[in-house]
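Input record (Table S2, row 169):
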Amino acid sequence: MSKSNIRICRYSQCNYPNKEINLDVDDYYQKNKFYYHKDCWKAKTKGEWKDEKTKQDLQTIKNLWIEHINETVVYSQLFQMLNGFLQRGVESEYLLFVLQYCIIHKYKLMYPGGFKYYVDRQEIKDAYSRTKFAKVKRSPPPQIVDNEETSPKFSVGSKSKGFSSILKK
Ligand SMILES: [Zn+2]
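Output record (zinc ion complex):
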């Protein structure tokens, strides 16, 4: 039997034998070059696909929101908003960063609906990409001091320290 009509389901929690999809008989969904069983695709888009890291980030966001933004926030509204971003392909790590950024800068934020404005804000996107870049680059040895010209006005290193010290208390 030819293997050409067999694809591997891309859903990480796929329960079908060997994750195989038989294109001739199985219901499937194709996205770009990726194939999913129809059930698997439904589960994935419903949010059951979230990995541990994402779940953890969402919990952290919830806790920070309660602690710093609004302790009476409606959870379903909060998660609906967050899930909307995840489905658009926004990383949970970025959503967490945005919330931390708003807290640090004391931006006006009360309800989940208002969060969208900050998620799309260029200033925060820029700050985030600098942080990611810094992570990849690894910080230089302490004896090397950046001169005025190369050090950004917004120092990534000290900011992220600021985040953790505020968030840990
Ligand atoms: Zn599957």
